[in-house]
Amino acid sequence: MLSSRFPFVVCLLLVLSLLLPANSSRAQEKRDQVQFQGATFDGEAELLRVWNLVNEQFYRADFNGVDWEAVKHAYLPRATAARSSAELAPVVNEMLGLLKTSHTNYYTTSDPEYYFLFGIFSNGPLAEEAQRRFPAGQVQFDSLGLLTRELDGKWYVSGVLEGTPAAAAGIHRGNELVSINGEPFHPVLPLQGLAERGEAVELVIQTTPDQGSRRTVEVRPVALQPMPAMLEAMKQSMRVIEHMGKRIAYVHVWCYAGRQYHELLVQELTEGSLKEADALVLDIRDGWGGASPEYLNLFNRRIPQLTALTRDKAEVYFETQWRKPVALLINGGSRSGKELLAYGFRKYGIGPVVGERTAGAVTGGTVVPLSDQSLLYLCVMGMQVDGEILEGIGVAPDYEIPWPLPHGSATDPQLQRALELLTDGNGN
User: Fold this and answer.
1) Is the pLDDT of residue 406 over 60?
2) Which end of the chain lies in a sparser environment, N or C, as judged by fewer CB atoms within 10 Å?
3) What's residue 82's pLDDT?
4) Which CATH superfamily is domain 226-363+380-422 in?
5) SS3 for the chain, per residue?
6) Which residues of the chain form CATH 2.30.42.10?
């Protein structure tokens, strides 16, 4: 049962993340959005643009105790030697890392995040720039449908979007990505241009620490549009799992940056394919945030149940809520607005939270395009949730179930634990 203090609040985090810099900085912002087509890359100038934006707009005037002026002089010599935004990126991100704050990073066309951020913000502060940088303003890049993470110089699969070539090839979380077409793996660069030509790649994956587990799979990249792809992956993730005599619905929400994701969830739970299930596992691991606290109202059982009675005494139910047991899956890739949902689940007793502690990345960021090959994501607002700071802390689960990433098991132990809790009557 939910507390009577269940929060009926409006969307805040996504609105804040869409904010442009203050009017007083508009002129500086225009200067920062320099066009580089046909120009020699100037690493020093690019780093100074980033430094100035942080200096003027970072959410803390004390820069979290960092001597920001000294930082500029320390990093400029290394920036001068950079011949491209890709070469400059490690230098800039090392500098930004000193601030120890989420939603603060420098991305280039070599990073999947560059395209996902353009997709997320293409109807907001990046609308005009998206039209310029992408054909017909359609944000896309050639992809296998993998979410990846680099650990100690090796690449691993952290997620596979359902309905993508990677999913069809049987690649799963934890696989080490050894090489692509005989070259060291990279998530973006080797794939660009292949989708239009219909060319496949040979991907060598390793499933265990033993190199003998390596195998080669042929995968054909597709032109992936980030926002539609995550919505389609969410749709294809939906299923009903038969477990210990119970029919348990499962949904993986890869992204909440747009109401279409929550609206799809509500539709399927209240009138769609998952309506008749006995319980629900809501998976918000990995992907992108953007969720509003108001989304928790879907699980508020204090909303009255409306029933219409027809002339022939037939009863028609109008359901707007999920009133049955629910468990939430989280991990270190659950970030930003998703962490608000995890916080609410625990505080208001909505259902068991299973997995690993969330990212602790709860601030408000803005996006600023720089050169033709780069983008700055910058924290401009701190956040408190019911007076608590989650930034750098995150939300711990009720049930800590580790699932190590490198060469992780294909069987999902966190999902299995959630299913057990729901069938044992511990799903509230």
Assistant:
1) yes
2) N
3) 94
4) 2-enoyl-CoA Hydratase; Chain A, domain 1 (3.90.226.10)
5) CCCCCCCCCCCCHHHHHCCCCCHHHHHHHHHHCCCCCCCCCCHHHHHHHHHHHHHHHCCCCCHHHCCHHHHHHHHHHHHHCCCCHHHHHHHHHHHHHCCCCCCCEEEECCCHHHHHHHHHHCCCCCHHHHHHHCHHHCCCEEECCEEEEEECCEEEEEEECCCCHHHHCCCCCCCEEEEECCEECCCCHHHCCHHHHCCCEEEEEECCCCHHHEEEEEECCEEECHHHHHHHHHHHHCEEEEECCEEEEEEECCCCCCHHHHHHHHHHHHCCCCCCCCEEEEECCCCCCCCCHHHHHHHCCCCCCEEEECCCCCEEEECCCCCCCEEEEECCCCCCHHHHHHHHHHHCCCCCEEECCCCCCCEEEEEEECCCCEEEEEEEEECCECCECCCCCCCCCCEECCCCCCCCCCCCHHHHHHHHHHHCCCCC
6) 141-223
User: What is the crossing angle of helices 85-97 and 68-80, to 10°?
Assistant: 160
Contact 21, 29 (CB under 8 A): yes
Residue 427 φ then ψ, to 5°: -95, 15
> What span, in angstroms and rounded, lies between the C-alpha atoms of 148 and 187?
7
Does the predicted TM-score (pTM) go above 0.85? Answer: yes
Q: How many other CB atoms are there within 10 angstroms of residue 360's CB atom?
A: 16
Strand partners, 353: 328
Domain 141-223: assigned CATH number: 2.30.42.10
What tokens does 165 get?
Answer: 């070539």
- Identity of the amino acid at 331: N
> What are the pLDDT digits (tens) for 251-270?
999 999 999 999 999 999 99
pLDDT of residue 425: 75
Specify the domain boundaries for CATH 3.90.226.10 within the chain: 226-363+380-422
